[in-house]
Amino acid sequence: MPTNDIKLRLRRLVACAGLVATAAANAQAPHVVKPGETLWGISGQQLSTPLRWPEVQERNQVGEPRLLQPGTVLYFADGRLVPEGAAVVAAVEGQASRQRAGGAEQTLTPGMPIQAGDTLITGTDAFVTLGLTGGSRIVLPSRSALEVLAIDATTVRLRLIKGRVESQVQKQQPNQQFEIRARSMGLGVRGTHFRVRDEDGLLTGEVISGEVVVERTAQATTTASAAPAEPPLVLRAGSGAVLLDNGPSVARGLLPAPQLLNETAQRSNRTFRFSPVPGAQTYRLQLARDERFLLPVHEQRGPGPSFEVPAELEPGFYQLRLTAFDAARLEGLPGDSTIYLPASAGSGTAGQGTSSVLSDGRVEVRWPGVAGQRYAFELSRSADFAVLLVNEPAVYATGMTLGPFALGGRYHWRARQATADSTAPAAAGFSGSFDIPAR
């Protein structure tokens, strides 16, 4: 064979090996969606062109691209490192690790696959989010440990060793099973949002939405006259129970969510006040980077009715969640709000908001407000709002996505709390502006 032909074949082999290595690298590097990202922008970053976003949508079974959720794990190669039915680390905040039997402890990183036999451990101020095929998510907060007993296309079985685990489980098919075990209890679910806590010697289960069935996983069988098995306990939305090792557990209603005071969301310091909940003994505050709390970054517990967020957290917009604990130490329903953390206590001014130009030309506007509150939103080319481009009298949100814009220049926006009484004075609002490059 001529020498030139041999060299040509070698070059082709090297090129093919490079393509295989590149594909393998892509398979090992799934992308975890961050707040504000779009398939258009992600495709441009990962695949060198935004025009391939339909491929990303189809490969990852994304339904509505405009509703892309933070924490979603996207793959870009045809061969996935994580088999169908397995789990992957969607997000990590702080120090967290994975322990495998007979193996060394490994630091958790986004995109890492999780399999049966793994034990996940979070340190102080650390949070881990697991993504499962089908859209289910599991959040492991600070000072917690969770063992993966089984995980495949039909079964997810986890064991809470200590701490807490919060699950957002998509509706299960008839042949699918999702269960969390803790001590001698097994909690099976069918499409629900719920918490399991083993803290300070107390085991509890609390259901925010959906339904959970609690059964004992081990019954006394030492004698023939052993007592019959207890009937399962059904926990429905808005209820919880202290799960007893001995004796029946009783479902009870959860405390309502604490309400963040409106003026607190607009203040320029890091102290957040809320209305006390009758019957509450203590409260918990959590902060996350996304509305579903799949990207938590901070939590603290105290007597209320206020919390001060530490200066270590970066300034910017966050989702704030408040819950109340009753006398039985059950954690109540969550109350969520969008808040803004200034650079330091006492800096900034009330009424500030932010706007960011997305990679597809649209603009995301956000303001610190209370979730579920109505806001009147206006957009104009002039600072006096003489001519309105957008006039939404009742927006049930704390942000708007606008555009794309055909004309360049400066745009002005403002949002204020909407009132049922049109003659009432306008509430203090939020405002800002953004610039669109001329074409």
From TrEMBL:
Residues 29-76 form the LysM domain. Residues 1-27 form the signal peptide. The keyword Signal applies. Transmembrane segments: none annotated. InterPro entries: FecR, Ig-like_fold, LysM, LysM_dom_sf. Pfam families: FecR (PF04773), LysM (PF01476). Keywords: Signal. Gene3D superfamilies: 2.60.120.1440, Immunoglobulins, LysM domain. This is LysM peptidoglycan-binding domain-containing protein. It comes from Acidovorax cavernicola. The lineage of its organism: Bacteria, Pseudomonadati, Pseudomonadota, Betaproteobacteria, Burkholderiales.
